[in-house]
Amino acid sequence: MNGAVLECIPKESHQGDFVPDKMKLDATGTYLSIGNKPCKPQPKTTEELERQKKLFTDNAFYLLAHQERIMRDSRMFLAPVAVQNGLAYIGTSGFNAPTLGIYLEWWNECPIALRVDKESRRSLVFHLAGSPLSGANRCAEVYEDGRTESVQVSSFISHWRPFTAINTRYDEAKHMYQAYTLEQVLEILHTEDGERWDYSAEINERFMQSEINELKKKVERLTKESEKWYSMYADTYMKYKDAEISEAFSTFQSFREECEAQINSFKMRKRALKADLKSNRMDNISYQRTLTPLNKQIRELEFRVSTKKYELINKYLSEGISYDTIESYMNKKNNI
């Protein structure tokens, strides 16, 4: 998640050859129709799987509060989670055998999976099911008290796509390395915490950070959209005012080049004066008397260029056109 490398403990033996959980069309026919889809292409989950699933949802917020601790331990990270997600037409491929670390990483990378309703109740999306084409979905969320409810999330693709990317990233690790059970993870965490540990501050921080991340994404998205529209507007405006702006820019360029030529001439005289001073052909008093008016003339010329540039900027600033925009347009027009 943060580029850290976990040291993993290899399993003593592997059950079969490693097969990556790549996404593919469902070949069973179970998921090749429109309508509500089962969580997995099997009649019913076993009682043990249901118990494991409830153990996960009952402790979801507690586990989220221990995110940093869990992400440092490969056996905790790889602890299996008994939740089967899936998509219409694709089935469970890409979603198989999620782990505790995968859920924590997903909740971190998908801030919209951390939800707060109108009554300020916080929940975590933990089950994904829906159509990758229409976006219609029937997911599930868990509240802080362990209660679960069905929910239809917005931007379904922004939920399932990062989940499958993260889940399949660790396919080989799930096959090769040792993992705790969820019971073992909870036992270790409870032992380390003691009886009086309050994790509300950690949950508040996680949700606030999630909100910050989501708002940051919105700002980036809106900024990109704004830049696109501004570019279109500026290009159209510049073409509309082409003759006027070209003349104004050309006049400024000529004025700046003339001033810069004079400034360079004065700088050459300054270098010559410096050489005369070093070779003792001029004393320091004469040097300073000659240098001062040269510096004054250079500053005056630079001020005149700045003033002229400001006049050009001020002329079009009210239309939202900056000097950089004008210069970029003119350079493009002149193939510079």
Share of helix, binned = 55-70%
Helix count from the secondary structure assignment? 12
Mind summarizing the main beta sheet? 4 strands, antiparallel
Mean pLDDT: 89
Strand proportion, as a percent range, falls in 5-15%
- If you compute it from the alpha carbons, what radius of gyration comes out, rounded to the nearest whole angstrom? 33 Å
Q: Strand order across the biggest sheet?
A: 2-3-5-6
The termini sit apart by 44 Å
How do the helices and strands follow one another from N- to C-terminus?
HHHHEHEEEEEHHHHHHH
Tell me what the structure shows:
The protein is α+β, with helices and mostly antiparallel strands. It is 57% helix and 7% strand. It is built from twelve helices and six strands. The strands form two sheets. Strands 2-3-5-6 form a four-stranded antiparallel beta sheet. It starts with 46 loop residues before the first helix and ends with a helix.
Helices and strands in order, then pairings?
Blueprint: H1 47-58, H2 60-65, H3 67-71, H4 74-77, E1 86-87, H5 100-109, E2 114-116, E3 122-127, E4 129-130, E5 139-143, E6 148-151, H6 157-169, H7 171-176, H8 182-193, H9 200-240, H10 242-278, H11 284-317, H12 323-333
Parallel strand pairs: 1-4
Antiparallel strand pairs: 2-3, 3-5, 5-6
Name a few traits of the molecule.
two-stranded parallel ribbon; 12 helices; 336 residues; 57% helix; alpha+beta; single chain; four-stranded antiparallel sheet; elongated
Short description:
This protein is 57% helix and 7% strand.
